[in-house]
Structure formats: structure tokens, C-alpha cells
Design brief:
Strand order of the largest sheet: 6-8-9-10-7-11
CATH topology of the largest domain: Methane Monooxygenase Hydroxylase, Chain G, domain 1
Largest sheet: 6 strands, mixed
Structural class: alpha/beta
CATH class of the largest domain: Mainly Alpha
Shape: elongated
Number of strands: 14
Number of helices: 20
Number of domains: 4
Radius of gyration: 42 Å
């Protein structure tokens, strides 16, 4: 800090000196009048020059004017032209003297200014480099953000929907508050705690909550911040991190995205000389070297635990893994209540219904949902956020932004209407399917010209074979409706076919739900259970088995497509009347479709009774 202040002081003094020198030079030049050489000779012959000083190139002197007093005249200068100026001065009795020309100011300015300019540029570049990288002397220092015990304000009540994970972390807090309870009977807290779960479930929030509850310093950094271009810097930063942590013990070290640092070794192109592997080796050494009873707790988070190095996960290092999974319905309700405190929500807001409408969403999704609803309320100039805004926000998150200005010709609009109603009617007819909440033909997102929203009544973790088949039939209902009404099909079923085929393929290859292939698992082992649920490699089976798998998938799709066709042919009247209503209003709620179906069925029963009565009268006659 002293060197920095000294450099600033020297720069300020140099700048002031340069400015004063320039001002002095400019002021002296400005007070002196410049004359042509011919005019100088004329004034000298007329006796109006009192004294001069002659240099090699310049003549400076005093010029007598009418307003001058007793020899005090106006100073002037002129450029010397000839070398015999002394004769003119002698003939006119003018005092003159020789003067050595001084270029000190000019020479100083010519070399000092570039030097100062260079120093200024260098100082600016180094200052920026120090702000971004910490300077050359701090390359080996860790980049962790250090929060002291009174700076972390996050509590466990802020991390909702992860009750099981919080229960596991309570032991860590108790150890940081009262370590003697554990050490008195010889117990040791786990050296490392690994939080595992999908993105957005609140792993980082949980780590901050542990620090906030235990009131200890909190070191927070990402795994990628260890790895640098220069070899050895990552290992040096690991050493410096643990050194600082030991000095501030008890404390918590939180490493986010551990997979960027702890990826399994042996797969890199540089082998053991890879900078990332050296950094990982140093981390393993530090985990073995520090005493767990000193109060340094290492918490890490990742959504890719399967690619971590096995040496990192063995007992004695990260020996406790805590799953931070997607919240269930009560968990989503608790998360929504936390975020609803930050906005002005309507008093009659049904949080239970809202939690049921958001299956599969994590904490980050729900926070975004509440924010979208608040923005919609502001856009509509409302004083509070109601259920209508939340329902619209759910649709925006699930289906995309509504695009009412997209122009669709009447023929395409009619096709979309029958397509979406095909999904809805098949779903309402088949048992054990998710209830239909809304059917819309308003375009949304990038390619969706319409959508049918089904909301599950409860969270499901197991699906039976019949339920999967019903889901496939529902997905194929849109294509079936197009074939029945228009005797032709369109490209609008692309996403439906993709999802239906994925379900059928999983039934055959993963779930053993094929009667011809039996209870055999054919799918390749998944690479990532959180981020890539559908990624799989080639299975270890023969070409004949692959042919049977394709045949079985095709059979499942064909059978369910025939089911959808049969259902929609039997309910064609309902399909036509619902399509007319949907084309007029562009949106139908699930309850409206049910009421319309009941009205059509009731009218059909009345017509059948009338036909029977007419037949009886004819027979009697």
C-alpha cells in the first residue's frame, strides 16, 4: 500500500511541475510581441529600439513607443535574418549583447513528456491487471470470496423444500458451534460434505445457510477458479486456501461446481502433467492433511457426481453425500411461500393449486415463476399479483411466450384446433390420465401453434404400463384427429411423435414391459442422471435383438394410435362442436370441455329416445 501511495505522489508532483513549466513558457511567450525583421530594422534606424539581446536565430529587445515611460518600452522578438545586424545596431547607437540560445525547456519537454506518457499508460494497464487478476505477486493466491461471520444473512428458513438435506447439515452446524460435544467421546465430523442434485435445487443456498446458522467465516469459490493456464497455479491456490481457512477456523469452505476440478483422472490428453490433475492431487493431499477437529468444514456441490474421481469420494475425504432433489408438492408450496413474501400477492391466492401446477420445477424455476407473475401484474397495472397472473406465468414458463400477433391462415388454425382437441378428448376418455386444464390455439414459443395443458393431481414416482400406454395414446390423439377430420395429416405432430417414441423405447429397452423381449434391460448405462436423462449409447445386443426392439416399439405406437382413432371416431360430434367453440374463443378450459361433452351426450341420448318412441308408434300403427 505504501508503494502504491508513493507512486501516486510522484506522479502528482511530476504532473504539477510539468503544468507549471508549460504555463510559464506560454505566459512569457504571450507577453512578448513578435515583429517582422524588416520592421525591426526600420525601428532601429528610427531610434525606437533601446536594447537588444542577440542569439543565433532570435533577436529580443525593448521597443520604445509613444506610451513608454523613460526608456521602459514594450518587449519584442523577431527572427534573425542576416549576420551583420551588429553594424545596424552600432550605426544607431543601440546597446546590444550576445546571448546563448537556451533550449532547456524544449529539450526537457521533448524527453520528459514521452516518459511520463509511457509511465501513465503502464500504470493504467497494471492497475487494471491488478483489479482483474490480483497482480503478478498474487497469482498463487486463492480467489475465494470471504464472508465473515456477520456478513452471511442466509438462514435455513430461506432454504425451503429441502427438509431432508437440512436435517443432514444440522450436524455440521452443531459441530461448528459446539465441537467439544463430538470430540469428547471420540467422534469426528465428516471431512467433506458433497451436495448432489439437479441445477437450481438450492445447493449453494444450503451451504450459505449453514454458514449463516453457525456464524462462522465462509469461503466461497467455484471449481473452475483453481485451474489456470500457468502450470502450478491451481495447486498453489489450493494450498493458500487451506492455509487461510486454518487461520480463520472454525470456518466453512464451499466449492461450487466441483466437477470442473474433481473430474476423474486419466482421461486427459496430457496425462499426469495436466494442470487440472495437479490441482486435484493437491486438493486430495490437503483433505488428508488437515485435522477435522480444528473446525474447517469443506462443502462442495455438483450435478455430475458420476464423473468425479473415485479418490475424491472415498471415506476420509468427501465421505458424506447429501441429495438435494427436486421438491415435491409440499416442498414447492414452502418455496412459493418464501418467494411470495417478496411481492404483493392477492389474499385469496391458492398456493396449493399453484404448487400442483408446477410438477418437476426446482427452486430456481419457482423463483422465476413468481417474478414473471409480478412482472405481468405490473404490465396489467394491478396493485397485487393474483391467480390469473400466476397461471399465465406457468404457461409462459412451460409453453413459451404468447404470440397473438402471429398471423395464421384459417385452414391452419382449424387444423391446430382439431389437433389440440384430439389430445384433450383422448386424455379425458382414458382412465388414470392427468386432468386437462386448458386447451389453447394461441401460438406460443418458437414453434408451438397450440397446446393442451394437463396438470397432475399429485406427484408420481412410479408409472404403470397401462398409464404409459394411455400417455402414448394421448400424445397420438392430435395426429388421429387430423386423419379423421381432414383425411390427411400435417407436420404439427413432430413433438408428439418424438415424445411417444421415447416412452415406447423406454418401455421396451429399460422397463422390461415387452412381452416378446421379456424382463431384460437393453439400454446403455446413462452418463448423467440429472442433466441428460435420455442420453444413451449403443446397447450390448445383437442385430437380431435390435430388429426385435424396433419391431416392438413400432407395435406399441401402432396399437395406441388405433386406440386414439377409435376413441375420436366414437366422439366425433363432441370433437366438431368443441372445435367450433375453440375457433371462436381460441381458449377452452378443461371444465368447459367436460360440460360440452356432457351436453352433447345428453342431446344424443334424447335423440335416441325420440327415435325409439317413433319406432314404437310405427309398430303400433
Amino acid at each position: 500500500m505504501q508503494n502504491t501511495n508513493r507512486s501516486k505522489l510522484l506522479l502528482i508532483i511530476g504532473g504539477i511541475w510539468l503544468v507549471l513549466t508549460l504555463l510559464n513558457s506560454f505566459s512569457s511567450n504571450a507577453a512578448m510581441k513578435t515583429l517582422p525583421y524588416s520592421e525591426f530594422l526600420k525601428l532601429a534606424k528610427e531610434g525606437k529600439v533601446s536594447e537588444v539581446a542577440v542569439t543565433d536565430n532570435v533577436i529580443q529587445g525593448v521597443m520604445l513607443t509613444e506610451n513608454s515611460d523613460s526608456g521602459r518600452g514594450e518587449r519584442f522578438r523577431t527572427v534573425r535574418v542576416d549576420s551583420e545586424v551588429s553594424e545596424v545596431l552600432d550605426q544607431n547607437g543601440i546597446e546590444y549583447s550576445g546571448k546563448i540560445q537556451s533550449n532547456f525547456i524544449a529539450s526537457i519537454f521533448s524527453w520528459v513528456f514521452p516518459v511520463l506518457l509511457f509511465l501513465g499508460i503502464w500504470y493504467f494497464i497494471m492497475r487494471r491487471f491488478q483489479q482483474q487478476q490480483g497482480g503478478f505477486m498474487t497469482l498463487g493466491k486463492n480467489k475465494a470470496k470471504i464472508y465473515m461471520d456477520d456478513e452471511v444473512q442466509v438462514k435455513f428458513e430461506d432454504a425451503a423444500g429441502v427438509d431432508e438435506a437440512k436435517q443432514e447439515l444440522v450436524e455440521v452446524i452443531d459441530f461448528l458451534k459446539e465441537p467439544e460435544r463430538f470430540t469428547s467421546i471420540g467422534g469426528q465430523i465428516p471431512r467433506g460434505t458433497l451436495l448432489v442434485g439437479p441445477p437450481g435445487t438450492g445447493k449453494t443456498l444450503l451451504a450459505k445457510a449453514v454458514a449463516g446458522e453457525s456464524k462462522v467465516p465462509f469461503f466461497s469459490l467455484s471449481g473452475s477458479e483453481f485451474v489456470e493456464m500457468f502450470v502450478g497455479l491451481g495447486a498453489a491456490r489450493v494450498r493458500d486456501l487451506f492455509k487461510q481457512a486454518k487461520e480463520k477456523a472454525p470456518c466453512i469452505i464451499f466449492v461450487d461446481e466441483l466437477d470442473a476440478l474433481g473430474k476423474a483422472r486419466g482421461f486427459g490428453t496430457l496425462g499426469g502433467h495436466d494442470e487440472r490433475e495437479q490441482t486435484l492431487n493437491q486438493l486430495l493431499v490437503e483433505l488428508d492433511g488437515f485435522d477435522p477437529n480444528m473446525g474447517v468444514i469443506l462443502i462442495a456441490a455438483t450435478n455430475r457426481p458420476e464423473i468425479l474421481d473415485p479418490a475424491l469420494l472415498r471415506p476420509g475425504r468427501f465421505d458424506r453425500q447429501i441429495l438435494v432433489d427436486r421438491p415435491d408438492k409440499p416442498g414447492r408450496k414452502d418455496i412459493l411461500n418464501v418467494h411470495l413474501k417478496k411481492i404483493t400477492a392477492a389474499k385469496n391466492l391458492d398456493v396449493d393449486t399453484l404448487a400442483a401446477m408446477t410438477p418437476g420445477m426446482v427452486g430456481a424455476d419457482l423463483a422465476n415463476l413468481v417474478n414473471e407473475a409480478a412482472l405481468l401484474s405490473v404490465r396489467r397495472k394491478k396493485a397485487e399479483v393474483g391467480m390469473a397472473e400466476f397461471e399465465e406465468a406457468v404457461e409462459r414458463v412451460v409453453a413459451g411466450l404468447e404470440k397473438k400477433n402471429r398471423l395464421i391462415n384459417p385452414m391452419e388454425k382449424e387444423i391446430v384446433s382439431y389437433h389440440e382437441l384430439g389430445h384433450a378428448i383422448v386424455a379425458m376418455t382414458l382412465p388414470e390420465t392427468d386432468p386437462v386444464q386448458k386447451i389453447s390455439i394461441i401460438p406460443r414459443g418458437i414453434a408451438a401453434l397450440g397446446y393442451t395443458m394437463q396438470v397432475p393431481t399429485e406427484d408420481r414416482f412410479l408409472m404403470r404400463r397401462k398409464e404409459l400406454l394411455n400417455r402414448i395414446a394421448t400424445l397420438l390423439g392430435g395426429r388421429a384427429a387430423e386423419e379423421i377430420i381432414f383425411d390427411d395429416i400435417s407436420t404439427g405432430a413432430q413433438n408428439d411423435l418424438s415424445r411417444a417414441t421415447d416412452i415406447a423405447r423406454s418401455m421396451v429397452k429399460e422397463y422390461g414391459m415387452s412381452g416378446n423381449l421379456g424382463q431384460v434391460y437393453f439400454a446403455h448405462k446413462k452418463q448423467n442422471q440429472f442433466l441428460m436423462p435420455n442420453q444413451e449409447g449403443s446397447g450390448d445386443y445383437s442385430a437380431m435383438t435390435a430388429h426385435l426392439i424396433d419391431k416392438e416399439i413400432r407395435q406399441i405406437i401402432d396399437e395406441q394410435y388405433e386406440r386414439a382413432l377409435e376413441i375420436l371416431r366414437s366422439k366425433r360430434d363432441i370433437l366438431n362442436q368443441a372445435a367450433e367453440t375453440l375457433l371462436e374463443s381460441e381458449t377452452i378450459q378443461g371444465e368447459e370441455l367436460k360440460a360440452l361433452e356432457e351436453a352433447v351426450l345428453k342431446q344424443s341420448d334424447l335423440t335416441d329416445d325420440t327415435d325409439v318412441s317413433v319406432d314404437r308408434q310405427a309398430m303400433a300403427a
